[in-house]
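Notes to self, FHA domain-containing protein:
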Amino acid sequence: MKNTAIPQKRFRPTVLPDFRPSGLLELESNNKEGVLLKHVEPADACEPNTFYAKTSIGQRPLYKLMIYRDDSLVQEFELMEKSSYIVGRASGETVVADIPIEEDTCSKQHCVIQFRQQNGQLKAYLMDLESSNSTTLNGDEIPSSHYVQLRPGDIISSLDSQYDLVFMNS
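result:
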């Protein structure tokens, strides 16, 4: 009699597709002039002008960032039109910073000022974008990649910087 063994089927594990968001599309779309931005806005991001257009507050506050060098005012930026502003070095051919600083101790994407709507209020936050010389708030180094709430009169700087950035709300 012939040996007629029945061929056994090999077990192949079933691989199911994974439809969870990977974040890759968001990263690809999060660039400026071809440079990948280190900051992705949170879901509660809100522009000050948009926030105050929806509320019935009598007088709108005006958010500003004043840049000082050696106690002299260098430049002033209004922070009303966007929900976030990247602060970074201005040297090089491609500048991605919304608020450029002419200093070598400042990274190209140093930190970000982010406006967020929380519990019916608009709050401003600061986050260090893993900069090489850290970001300080009122002289204290802030942790990288964590939001820290800003208050009027807060002084933003980097270690060994000649510039001070003063956050104002008038």
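- The CA atoms of residues 99 and 154 lie 17 Å apart.
- The chain has two helices and 13 strands.
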